[in-house]
Amino acid sequence: MKRLYRVLISNKISSRWAGRANAIYAANDDLSIDWSKDPDYISVDDDCIVCDLCNKNLPENRETGEILILQVSWDVGKTWEDVGTRCEECLAGNPQDRILERVQEDD
Fold it and tell me: How far apart are CA 27 and CA 3, in angstroms?
């Protein structure tokens, strides 16, 4: 099995980013999650999209609104799974010979 990588070019106005929310769970005294209580959800503003490695605000280029998402496939012909958002600087830290292509998201 061979891991393959690609970069999906998304846009800030893509439906992928609509309705995002963070779950906040109650904690026990030992700081473990208290699963007996339902989480609270807070919505995440569109301006709160960040690089998953360095926390730089995305999109870097406000004019195009492009957001880069590193994706992995576990073999040729398999589905692509999101690894996470990346800024150009952090993406450059990946072995470039392992990134097959950059593709535009259909939305």
Answer: 37
